[in-house]
Design goal:
The chain is an alpha/beta fold. It folds into four domains: 38 residues, no CATH class; 130 residues, Resolvase, N-terminal catalytic domain (Rossmann fold); 99 residues, Putative Large Serine Recombinase, Chain B, Domain 2 (Hect, E3 ligase catalytic domain fold), CATH 3.90.1750.20; 41 residues, no CATH class. It has a four-stranded parallel beta sheet, with helices on both faces. Strands 9-10-11 form a three-stranded antiparallel beta sheet. Strands 5-6 form a two-stranded antiparallel sheet. The protein is flat and about 90 Å long. The protein starts with a helix and ends with a helix.
């Protein structure tokens, strides 16, 4: 539009006849912008060319191992630089945020940065997701199909900068599936190689890692005997062979004030694992098979076998003829531990009678004197709870109050016993029993 047309339209619409005034302020689009005419609605009929819509691009990078992240210029940084260069070559694209998962496997989507990306996608802040390769996003075909479906529903584009193909065409989808299949094949092949390597290490008597057994320390990926802890292991086996009871071993260690690496008293379950650990005989167990190890044994194989015979004699195989109604739901008021179902057999009038209990787990771990409650009769406890539940079911006022409080998220006040009715109140198991 030329100057004369601008002036004519201006005079016709707004009655301006001062051409000098117009010439100073309307000779270009830039002058309109500087005086704010375009923002307020340009009187010359020009469109606002300043409002360029940019696409927000999310960059996602990932490496599988921590060793790759500890380098001076890690693989994640290299991926990020290449993706940023690709974005800079495009028109009206800008980097919104970089999401990086360093040291996380691509076998699943349980990754912190990826989850953060999903949250931002729900807020509709992102237009395009870019990664260096498809397998940086995921190696699982199932997960990738779900992600692509989610991206399509959200109208979000996904681009792999090194594997450029159009997923809207049949050939593009075929290429995408082939790449994902090979990525899945590579992951399974790597797992198989790792298993074979661990098996060969076990056959050579080498330790495959994991939690270092008490009595040893790790040195150059090998098990080396810790003299102080080894003496404790020997005393544990000797005491067990003399007494035949893990509880006696626990009492012995507690009396001598012998503690574990964390400075705590040995639990009965931990002692049981020590007594069944074949590593102390100088052997390695891998994939349920025993191999001769290269580390020094702490006890002889003869002592270990005797301990296993004692353990097998102690095992009592009885069929439980009772269905415990509240297994895993009852807590000890005294120590806070769970109360687990158990039973005992006693001879009464020349007949074997079985008694069922809910026993405090603290007693099993720390000894009979560790908790004052110890155990509660299962029949009495279940009868007491069922009777009170029946009584509560008949109290309509209590049920209405309870439903109202649940709907308003005041469950904690119900459990504390603050809301009661005249006919029924919350009960305390330990006080009554």
């Amino acid at each position: 539009m030329c100057y004369n047309e601008i002036a004519t339209n201006q005079e016709a619409r707004f009655g301006y006849n001062n051409k000098n005034y117009i010439s100073k302020r309307a000779t270009s689009v830039q002058s309109c912008v500087s005086y704010g005419w375009l923002q307020q609605g340009c009187p010359f009929g020009f469109k606002n060319m300043n409002k360029t819509k940019f696409k927000n691009c999310a960059i996602y990078t990932r490496v599988s191992t921590d060793m790759q992240t500890e380098k001076e210029f890690s693989s994640c940084e290299a991926q990020e630089e290449k993706i940023k260069s690709f974005i800079a070559s495009q028109n009206n694209w800008q980097v919104f945020k970089v999401y990086s998962d360093a040291g996380y496997s691509g076998a699943n989507i349980n990754r912190p940065a990826l989850q953060e990306l999903f949250q931002d996608l729900k807020k509709e802040k992102i237009d395009i997701i870019l990664s260096y390769k498809i397998d940086r996003l995921t190696r699982s075909p199932k997960d990738f199909y779900q992600l692509i479906e989610f991206f399509e529903q959200s109208k979000i584009d996904f681009i792999s900068i090194t594997e450029r193909f159009d997923t809207s065409t049949p050939s593009g989808r075929l290429l995408r599936n082939i790449i994902l299949t090979f990525a899945q094949f590579e992951r399974e092949l790597t797992s198989e190689r790792t298993r074979d390597k661990l098996l060969e290490r076990a056959k050579k008597g080498m330790w495959n890692g994991g939690r270092v057994p008490f009595g040893y320390i790790r040195k150059n990926k090998k098990l080396v005997t810790n003299k102080k802890e080894a003496e404790i292991i020997k005393s544990i086996f000797e005491t067990y062979l003399e007494t035949g009871f893990i509880g006696k071993v626990y009492d012995f260690l507690k009396e001598k004030d012998i503690k574990d690496r964390q400075g705590k008293i040995f639990s009965a379950s931990f002692l049981a694992r020590i007594l069944r650990n074949i590593t102390y005989t100088g052997k390695i167990k891998y994939a349920n098979k025993i191999y001769q190890g290269i580390h020094q044994p702490i006890i002889s194989e003869e002592i270990f076998n005797i301990a296993q015979k004692i353990h097998k004699k102690r095992i009592r195989k009885f069929r439980v003829y009772k269905n415990f109604l509240f297994g895993g739901l009852v807590n000890c008021k005294n120590c806070g531990y769970k109360m687990s179902p158990c039973f005992t057999n006693k001879w009464k009038q020349r007949k074997l009678k079985r008694y069922y209990y809910y026993r405090c787990t603290c007693v099993n771990k720390k000894g009979w004197q560790a908790c004052s409650v110890k155990n509660v009769s299962a029949n009495r406890l279940e009868k007491y709870i069922l009777e009170n539940l029946e009584r509560i079911s008949l109290d309509k006022n209590y049920i209405e109050n309870f439903v109202f409080l649940l709907n308003n998220q005041f469950v904690s006040e119900i459990t504390s016993g603050r809301y009661r009715t005249r006919t029924c109140g919350l009960f305390n198991v330990t006080e009554t029993l």
